[in-house]
Here is the input.
Amino acid sequence: MKTLQTPFGEVQYDPDKVIRFPEGWIGFERLREFVVIPDEKGSASLYCFQSVEQPHLMFLLIDPTRFFPDYRVTPDAVVLEKLGITGRDTCFILTTITFHQDESVTLNLLAPVVYTPKTKRAAQIVLEGSGYQSRTALPGKKSAPESTTKAQSPV
Here is the structure.
C-alpha cells in the first residue's frame, strides 16, 4: 500500500489498482496515474479520480446515462487499441461532473472518459461534430443528484 496526502486527508491505495491514462487527461497531459476513491455512500454512481502525480487534483466522474439514457459513445479502433480493449472486453463511459457556485450541475458530454477494468487504462476522448457540450446541464436539476439505487462499480 502507498499513501497520498490530498486536500481531503490521507488516502491509502494499492499501486496495482492505479488507473493509467496513456495520453493523460485533456489539459493535464502529464497526469497519467489516478486512484479511484469510492463514493462513501457506496452508491457506485460517483467516482473520484485522484491524481497520483499531483495529489491536490481530482476529477469527479459519473455514468451519464443516469441522466441522459440515450447517450451513447462508441470508441474508435485507435482508442480501443490504446486501452487494450479487444472483442467483448468490458468498457465504461463516464463523464466529468461539475458542481458550480450557483448550485447548478453540469456534465461534460463532449469529452467522456473511456475506461476498461481489464487493463486498468482510460482515455478522455473528444466527440468532435457530435453536437454535445462540455457544460450540459442536468435535466431539471439545480443541485447534486441523490442516488436511490445501487449500481455496479466499473472500478
Remarks:
- The chain has one domain: 2-136.
